[in-house]
Amino acid sequence: MMVVFGAGASYDSAPTHPPPPRSIPDPLGPQRLPLANQLFEERALFAPILERFRDAQPVVPWLRHLEGGKTVESVLEQLQAEVDSDPRRHRQLAAIRYYLQSAISSCESAWDGAAARGVTNYKTLLDLIEHARKPDEKVCLVTFNYDTMLEAALPTVEVEIRSIGDYVASKSYKVIKLHGSVNWGREVEPLVNNVTAVGDAELLALLLKGAATLKMTDRYHVANQIPIVRLDANRPLVPAIAIPVQSKGAFECPAEHLKVLHECLPEVRRMLVVGWRATDAPFLRLLHDRGRQAIRGLVVAGGPAQAPDVIANLGRGLDRPGALLSTKGGFTDLILQHEADAFVTSS
């Protein structure tokens, strides 16, 4: 079985505090994990972070005030397309990566303190899966989220994440974070001869200033540092976070994790989709090219109005026979109304 998580899963992650209908103000909105178009909202929690990464400030109005059908992804894609003609865009996009790392980390902490208190739908879903899982059955957990709510739930199935290798070390559970994580850093070649002599603040300034010429490596590390600037005295890091763009051009994920994903896909018979819009073209291509001839799917999209679009996107990506059904509500409904029970226990 494969479970795919998108932003909607973390948005609706606390069973005691599900999001209210859009017509009703959300009292926990300032702490709730944001959806894509909420990433640059004028929240008290986000404001001081944006003040720190000032290179991002000139483009924030376009990302905050979305008009004419634009999305955060479409605006960021346009900015990325301009890097060759305007070198400032490199620094601005690098600052946005740092902003996203800090903002999502802070929001996740606030959300746990204000609402979740350690009790999440992620943990209950994993408990349900483990209860039904046959001894030799493998589960592949794919997430497009930057936050670490899934990692916090993994001890429920006796998986502990302390290093990059731990994500795919379990025989029963493989965890793939295709767009990176707030606690991942990617090594870059040193910008100065003696990194040890440079303080964290100065190193951060150098990494932002030199964003256009950074030499990225393929070495990823778990690094619980905000903002991420180094693994140790001699090895600088940048946040391993994919800029959310409309075309979803590339993954931000270790090669060893992608190899495991490629190996898992031909074995997937059932796919549970929670809060993912199914708009990531590279992943849909993988499903199409490496998936089985028939996959049964259950889509959790927040409500019946949103589900048809997700099912249509999945259908185009899969392009093969199979049943794609939807639940009546969101992640909390999936758990409290036991909408996943029959699907998870089926073979």
Topology (elements, then pairings):
Layout: E1 2-5, H1 7-11, H2 47-52, H3 60-64, H4 72-81, H5 88-116, H6 121-132, E2 139-143, H7 149-153, E3 173-177, E4 180-188, H8 200-209, E5 216-222, E6 230-232, E7 235-241, H9 255-264, E8 270-274, H10 281-290, E9 296-300, H11 307-318, E10 324-326, H12 331-336, H13 341-345
Parallel strand pairs: 1-2, 1-8, 2-3, 8-9, 9-10
Antiparallel strand pairs: 4-5, 4-7, 6-7
What would your notes on this structure say?
The chain has 347 residues and is of the alpha/beta class. It has helices at 7-11, 47-52, 60-64, 72-81, 88-116, 121-132, 149-153, 200-209, 255-264, 281-290, 307-318, 331-336, 341-345, and strands spanning 2-5, 139-143, 173-177, 180-188, 216-222, 230-232, 235-241, 270-274, 296-300, 324-326. The strands form 2 sheets. It has a 6-stranded parallel β-sheet. Strands 5-4-7-6 form a 4-stranded antiparallel β-sheet. Strand 8, helix 10 (281-290) and strand 9 form a beta-alpha-beta unit. The longest helix is centred in the first third of the chain and has 29 residues, at 88-116. The radius of gyration is 20 Å and the shape is globular.
Structural class: alpha/beta
What about the largest sheet?
6 strands, parallel
Which band does the percent of strand residues land in?
15-25%
Instruction: Give the SSE string.
Output: EHHHHHHEHEEHEEEHEHEHEHH
Using DSSP, what is the number of strands? 10
Residue share in helices? Answer: 25-40%
Radius of gyration: 20 Å
Separation of termini? 9 Å
- Count, helices: 13
Summarize this structure as a short list of keywords or feature phrases.
347 residues, alpha/beta, six-stranded parallel beta sheet, four-stranded antiparallel beta sheet, 13 helices, 10 strands
